[in-house]
Amino acid sequence: MRSLLRAIQGGAFATVVMTAFRLPILRSLPPSANFWAKYVGDGHPEEYTGMGIFLHFLYGISFGALFGLLYPRLRLPRSATETEGVVWGTVFGLALSVFGERVMMNRLLDIDLDADAETVFHASHAVYGIALGTWVGSRADSTSSYGEYEHGR
């Protein structure tokens, strides 16, 4: 139960970091509102801004929880911490990005990003993965505390 809570926290943290990275660059909300407008609502995506943000966080937290629960099953050495978390988190974030672009955006939403938007889309998912992996990796060994780190040595 404790690992699930840490995984959920990591998903929330990573989603905030990703959104803070993406929003000022693209100056647009994530395409979750498009999903709601097309499959649930009957209006334009702009009418579902709140629901779009909610769905974006729901996805981010859910996939973060999944990563957090899968991470210990990688059977990394006991010394595995942030470094391995960053590597595997980045792989996970980019896998989500490819799925998001190819399946969610292209097939389900009929959205084809221009080259710059596509780059930022993938970069923001890499940022998500880095933040998520760092969070989960830093909490993988529940016997360690912050005070035990030897920074700068």
UniProtKB/TrEMBL annotation:
Please give the superkingdom of this protein's source: Archaea
Per UniProt, what is one Pfam family of this protein? DUF6789
Q: Which organism is it from?
A: Halalkalicoccus jeotgali (strain DSM 18796 / CECT 7217 / JCM 14584 / KCTC 4019 / B3)
Q: Give TM regions.
A: 12-30, 50-71
Record's protein name: DUF1440 domain-containing protein
Q: What InterPro entries does the entry give?
A: DUF6789 (IPR046739)
Q: Which UniProt keywords apply?
A: Membrane, Transmembrane, Transmembrane helix
